[in-house]
Amino acid sequence: MKLLLHICCAPDATHPIQILRDEYQIDAFFYNPNIHPKEEYEKRLESMRAISSEWDVTLHEGEYDKDRWLELTGGHKDEPEGGKRCEICYRMRLEETAKLAAKDGYDAFGAVLTISPHKDAKKINEIGHELGKKYDIAYLESDFKKRDGFKKSIELSKGLGLYRQNYCGCVYSKQK
């Protein structure tokens, strides 16, 4: 089965790719207009390019459409992490993944976002299933942080020498 996996950053992709690659042919999709500043975005993309090359994973690079992201989330900039702004951000990134997966004939799409202990896996999965129905493509439900998944991703990324950021990426979380 061909799976298009949304990737937020290389460290978070390590463990999910490792556990999924026996079952799926994985292609990665780096679409993260939420990441600010642009230099941070470039660091994360470069790490993903490196791991994709090393692990022979096809990498699709989405548009860096920060203006659209700011337009969608700007009304929620004062909300705490995990609120409506994050839900809008998950939806934006998952929708682009679902559209690309459906257009390019993948069997399913998913996201590594659920590896973070700061992300709401239930909400991400709910949005993923909704978009799967909308675009007529299967969504791979996950909660990659389970069974020490987040800890394993940290260990793997350290072993690979990957750049690991200290905030989710959005300008609002960096200001907090």
Concise account of the structure shown:
This protein has 176 residues and is of the alpha/beta class. The chain is 51% helix and 12% strand.
**What number is the mean pLDDT?**
93
Radius of gyration: 15 Å
Placed side by side, the strands forming the largest sheet appear as 3-2-1-4-5
Portion of residues within helices = 40-55%
What overall form do the CA principal axes indicate?
globular
Topology:
Elements: E1 2-7, H1 10-20, E2 25-30, H2 38-55, E3 58-61, H3 66-73, H4 84-103, E4 108-111, H5 121-135, E5 138-139, H6 149-160, H7 171-175
Parallel strand pairs: 1-2, 1-4, 2-3, 4-5
Could you explain the architecture of this structure?
- 51% of the residues lie in helices and 12% in strands.
- With 176 residues, it is of the alpha/beta class.
- The protein has a single domain (2-175), classed as Rossmann fold (3-Layer(aba) Sandwich).
- Strands 3-2-1-4-5 form a 5-stranded parallel β-sheet, sandwiched between helices.
- Helix 5 links the parallel strand 4 and strand 5.
- The longest helix has 20 residues, at 84-103.
Question: What characteristics describe this protein?
Answer:
single chain; 7 helices; 5-stranded parallel sheet; 51% helix; 12% strand; Rossmann fold; globular; alpha/beta; 176 residues
